[in-house]
Design a protein that fits this description.
CATH topology: M1 Pyruvate Kinase, Domain 3
Strand order of the largest sheet: 2-1-6-5
Low-confidence stretches: 104-108
Oligomer: single chain
Strand content: 25-35%
Order of helices and strands: EEEEEHEEEEE
Helix content: under 10%
Structural class: mainly beta
CATH architecture: Beta Barrel
CATH class: Mainly Beta
Number of domains: 1
Length: 113
């Protein structure tokens, strides 16, 4: 599966996340990004959130006014069907290897594992 990173996003806590040009990515997430509630968000098992432009388009087609970063994702992708990712799949983004996990609440990918 080949796609692109359409937008890289961070925030000082909360949503929406705003686009940036570049950042370092580590096991702790995207440099400069912060989550207000660190008990449930962030950390090595929830370091990066993924969402796609295709999923945004589906929301807009349903009448929801949203743009990249509004859901709170760090990586906005294009050309990757995130709903078809399964545990153990890996995505290469620049020099980083992202291994998505699946959110038990929504069935959507969360990352890394």
């Amino acid at each position: 599966m080949r796609g692109i990173l359409a937008q890289l996003n961070i925030s000082g806590g909360g949503m929406p996340k705003k686009p940036i040009e570049q950042a370092m990515v580590s096991v702790d997430g995207v440099q400069g990004d912060w989550q207000k509630n660190r008990k449930y968000h962030g950390g090595p098992n929830r370091a990066i959130c993924l969402y796609s432009e295709e999923l945004y388009q589906g929301l807009r087609d349903s009448g929801v006014d949203v743009s990249n970063g509004d859901i709170g994702e760090n990586f906005t992708t294009r050309g990757i069907n995130l709903q078809h990712l399964k545990k153990g799949d890996r995505l290469k983004v620049g020099e980083s290897i992202i291994e998505p996990a699946i959110s038990s609440e929504s069935g959507m990918p969360i990352s890394p594992n």
